[in-house]
Protein 1
Amino acid sequence: MAKVISIANQKGGVGKTTTAVNVAASMAATKRRVLLIDLDPQGNATMGSGVDKYDVENTCYELLIEDVPAKDVIIKNTAGKYDLIAGNSDITAAEIKLMEVFARELRLRRALESVQDDYDYIFIDCPPSLNQLTVNAMAASDSVLVPMQCEYYALEGLTALMDTIQKLASVVNPNLKIEGVLRTMYDPRNRLANDVSEQLKRHFGDQVYRTVIPRNVRLAEAPSFGTPAMYYDKSSTGAKAYLALAGEILRRRVAK
């Protein structure tokens, strides 16, 4: 059965979608069966996977609201060599309609039950806010991967996010855990980044990944070509970092 990991941070611009696309591609490169779910109305993970978000028949909206079976929503073998459930602006309407649905926080969990045995990993790219979509993602997940920049405000936001995850765990998903904290857009020449990184390790210990994602031009360029960084420039430091992250996630799962 697939391990389901939400990639979430209430703060935008921390490399959340970049992480979702590239960790999915890196995990697929290790011959794991991977599904990426784009639950963000911006649809950036869909575009970064080489799929036109304006030209998809079914998205997360149909999955959550119209009860279209997951197997009919999944787009097979995208540019990243993983499967995809696309997202676009239609998902905004899904968030509103979910308010009228019974057991609304469990819609995604139940929708994925029929395909969980088809994958080793399912990654969910969450919106940069705590709303019904994010609640659905965390209710369906085994754990949460938190990307964050090593900046002061990001550190404060991380504490609030951890509190939110704990509250959600107590209400909708008692098995929900922190998968790990990922330092993104990291510049070792920046003193503040190093200071915040040390604070993170002191406060969160082993929950902080050893892998660090550097600031990298190739990571920024790859989405405009509709492909993950490892297929845009496999030799780039960004692509290598996400491959290392995939390896660390796999090792942690074995260790547990």
Note: The two ends are 16 Å apart (CA to CA).
Protein 2
Amino acid sequence: MTTLTLAELATITGGEVHGDSSAVVSAVAPMNRAQQGDVTFLSNPKYSKHLAECQATVIMVKAEQQALCPSNVLVVADPYVAFAKVAQALDTTPAPAKGGIAPSAVVAEDAKLGNNVSIGANAVIESGAELGDNVVIGPGCFIGQNAKLGNNTKLWANVSIYHDVVIGTDCLVQSGTVIGSDGFGYANERGEWIKIPQLGSVRIGHRVEIGACTTIDRGALDDTVIEDNVILDNQLQIAHNVHIGYGTAMAGGTIVAGSTTIGKYCIIGGASVINGHITIADGVTITGMGMVMRSIDEKGMYSSGIPLQPNKEWRKTATRVHRIDEMNKRLKAVEKLLEQKAES
């Protein structure tokens, strides 16, 4: 079990100690359930009234809440960021694999392995693959020919990395994800589908995290590109030749069609659908279930869809939507009549 003193927490977070710097914590807990030995945090000021009752050994708050805390305090600039850093330091998640190469793993003779590589049971590393230092490959993973994984990258169980895919350093890929599968490319000749070989690959930058059961297709000719510091949630579909810019975050269930470019620092809400061959500017936020059919040229927040309504209200709304064309014609007729009256 990992333990940290308040002084060590200050070093990790850059915070200011108020109280016993030798106080020890071993876990992070929510404020309403925290006990002795826990560290907690307050990120929303509306819960400040509960601070006096908090039982945590250490509370991380902004300076304005310090006087409300009954125990040892760590004053930080952003309690939620401090929580993330402390949670990393106290993380007890086991490694996807450890102890070198499992006896049942199959590793090609010409595959290049860096120092301290771990490969789990039944994993397959094909010819020409390159794994950097401290790479961890979970059980049942497949690493295709000439694929490259950078230092400290980790794959959980049953991840498939196709041939020629390049993944940078310090990346994390959750179970069931497929990177480098064929893009949806076909030509149609008199009703018969003709497959177009997908000759590009996928290039993923550094410090990228990809959730479980996400699919990232290889490019048709050029590569599909995920830049540094991108986070992708579970069950995303990223089609061929998509380019996702630095620092963008995409929530679960989102679908991005082919050859779309998404800028830097975008936030895409869950279950959004983004059309192909369009461009989204830097700094765009799309709220959940957004349907993006055209390019977005300016940063800002965009929404679409109809929020949940009681069924009777929704039926009325749907009926009115079906009558929009009729209503538009009537409106134009009224406008024309008013113009004629104004002219006379």
Note: The two ends are 88 Å apart (CA to CA).
Protein 3
Amino acid sequence: MTFRQALTLPRSNLVLAGILIMLLGNFMFALNDAMGKWLVASYSVGQVLFVRSLGAFIVLAPMIAKQGTSQLIRLERPGLQALRVFLATADTAFFYAAVMYLPLADVMTFYMAGPIYIAALSHLFLGEKVGWRRWLAIVVGFCGVVIALKPSSSSLSMASLFAVLGSISFAVSMILGRRLRGTSDTTLVTWQTVGALAMGLVLAVADWRPASAMDWSAMLLLGVVAGSAHLLITRALKLAPASTLAPFQYTLLLWGVVFGIVFFGDIPDNQLFVGSGIIILAGLFIFHRQKVIDGGEPDNVPRNVN
């Protein structure tokens, strides 16, 4: 069954499909994060980013061939497209730089604040009105980030700064993605991957290290996993409203804790759990208020899907 045929199914089936695809996409993202943390322990961020991007084209190549290259060239709002590519690439680079030194769950906690940043910045970038309830949730969410940072001299570390900058870059790139809804999934992910490929090459020049066949394969597989995750999440958001999918986004943190314990022996402390809980509750409230304001209507009805 094709995606266009799936759109003829009852809405409840579409939403269920979106939820299941979101869960799978989050698992793939968490797996990508764990693999990335393992690889940057031995190789530079630039090298991992470069080879990972090559691997992503294993997934993208058939989709580009099906879509045609003309859509890759004829872009809506090229300036915003370029800014989104830059920020999405910075997001990935900052993430890998952060997990070199911080536990996986710690870095993911900062990224879970993405909805809070999006709500705060949507007023500036999208001209959306943000009511006092959501501003209060934004402030509470930022308090959760501060708690998760474990305020001390360590909170000023470069690794923590990388995680915060990466999560903000992620949030702004998501906002720009909302501005570019008319661009196909394949085009968005392809240019995002090209940007990561270019930045990875620049960063890797000064610190390229020989790798075993197994590690080369792992870096390429990282690209396959990351590319698949991006496409799954994008597809899920076209099948079900973002406000419906929002709670399932936080399974990323659960997988981060599990993978951190199993593969790296990182056991989160109570302060991280408290901060994470505050961030999650604030994020869910923001999504709830958005749904109320939208009148309970779906905020992304599938149409003209490529």
Note: Residues 297-306 have pLDDT under 50 and may be disordered.
Protein 4
Amino acid sequence: MIEGGERVQSSILLSSGADIDIMVHGLFSYELFGHTFWITTTHVSLLIVMAILIGFSVAANRAMKHASEVPGGFQNVVELIVEKLDGMVRGVMGKSGSRFVNYVGTIFIFILISNLSGLFGLRPPTADYGVTFPLALLSFILIHFNQFKYQSPKEIWTDMCSPLPPWLPIWFPINLISEIAVPISLSLRLFANVLSGTIIMALIYALLSKVAYFWPGALHAYFDVFSGCIQTYVFCMLTMTYISNAIGEEE
């Protein structure tokens, strides 16, 4: 799946035509401690996305340092983004939402920009399972960190044995598998939906390149914009729901 990088630009970009390629390619390799490591198209796409986010963050920070009482232009955009993300997190998580706004807002913006990068010819980083699984793993760690922080061992054991009493742990293995499956389901849902859209658009351009001029824009609007936004929202919504359940009623 990872090949040598003979054509760097065509490997990074999902160019139209019969030579379209959706695979992950190795652009160049290096040796470290006797092992060979590859810099792939996913790494380059991630660097581009991160450069966009860092550039926006620096510009937003400078704009807010010189903020006016009546926002306008770029300041208005920044305040709108912060307000909407803050409202989304607090609306789902309630009082505890203030502690998770930064995390949820960060992964929301990162996943959204990654999904939308397909509009600009990049291979979306979220079409690589090596990107979506670490994101889901971070959420999984945060979920159980808060579970052990806000729930007693007795409450956790009771929950793992439900719906039966804790002294009859017949359902414990099933509930344990369900807990372990959380990062897998989170990551696969995002990965599969983004990758499927990438493959469909690649097939359309490869098979219908001579007539695919304007009308694929409608499909881009669905697979890159609509589906990308929906999958971003679903990932973050499930993360917030799992964390809220882990905190329990103590808050």
Note: The helical segments are 8-12, 41-65, 74-93, 101-116, 129-150, 153-161, 172-207, 216-247.
